[in-house]
Q: What sequence folds into this?
């Protein structure tokens, strides 16, 4: 919801700024409009010059203020999804709305592989194991990637074909000095055309924040090994 708050603030400020321009006739003093390269001799000319000078000054200040607010909002929202994982999996997406099936075989326990873009490069595919609980619609797992070894837990929905995952790394990142228990949020939607889950990952820590593409696909069923009799 942070994006919506930032956007609402910008709209309110812009509306107030535009409304104030019609009343900006007395903001410039003698020195302000005398610096304009217009030779004014009567009151009407000076009045128009004041309006122009005030509009230019106010417009410049307004643009700078908006840029600062936009930069602060971008910094605050970067690395955070618009919705929490439970709310995300209940949402719908028009992009994949044509696929109305409710095939529970999409969420199969076993070996999966994932890849993601980080620092402008694709990393993966990386092998991981996922176990789906059809009673609770929860998923757990573990694996490793270019960032380190991680445990995974999350939620999913058969109706919307979505997954919301949390990857908790058990080691420090190889490229950055981060705290232990570092987390990556992943939100995915099933894409029938590519036969895989696609979405984005989100990271936000004290020293790093980012987000980019993430893909997850099923590889093979997890095989159980029979007990050997002695």
A:
């Amino acid at each position: 919801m942070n994006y919506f708050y930032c956007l609402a603030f910008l709209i309110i400020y812009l509306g107030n700024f535009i409304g104030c321009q019609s009343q900006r006739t007395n903001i410039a003093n003698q020195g302000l409009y005398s610096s304009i390269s217009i030779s004014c001799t009567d009151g009407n000319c000076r009045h128009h010059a004041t309006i122009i000078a005030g509009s230019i000054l106010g417009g410049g200040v307004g643009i700078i203020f908006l840029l600062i607010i936009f930069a602060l909002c971008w910094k605050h929202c970067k690395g955070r999804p618009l919705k929490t994982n439970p709310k995300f999996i209940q949402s719908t997406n028009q992009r994949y709305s044509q696929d109305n099936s409710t095939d529970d075989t999409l969420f199969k326990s076993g070996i999966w592989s994932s890849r993601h873009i980080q620092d402008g490069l694709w990393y993966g595919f990386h092998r991981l194991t996922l176990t789906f609980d059809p009673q609770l619609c929860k998923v757990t797992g573990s694996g490793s990637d270019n960032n380190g070894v991680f445990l995974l837990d999350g939620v999913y929905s058969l109706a919307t074909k979505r997954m919301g995952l949390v990857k908790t790394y058990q080691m420090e990142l190889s490229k950055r000095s981060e705290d232990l228990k570092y987390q990556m949020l992943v939100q995915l939607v099933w894409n029938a055309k590519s036969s895989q889950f696609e979405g984005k990952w989100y990271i936000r820590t004290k020293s790093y924040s980012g987000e980019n593409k993430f893909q997850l696909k099923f590889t093979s069923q997890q095989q159980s090994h029979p007990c050997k009799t002695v």
In short: The first strand starts at residue 110 and ends at 118. Residues 17-38 have pLDDT under 50 and may be disordered. Helices lie at 2-21, 30-34, 43-77, 85-89. The chain has four helices and eight strands.
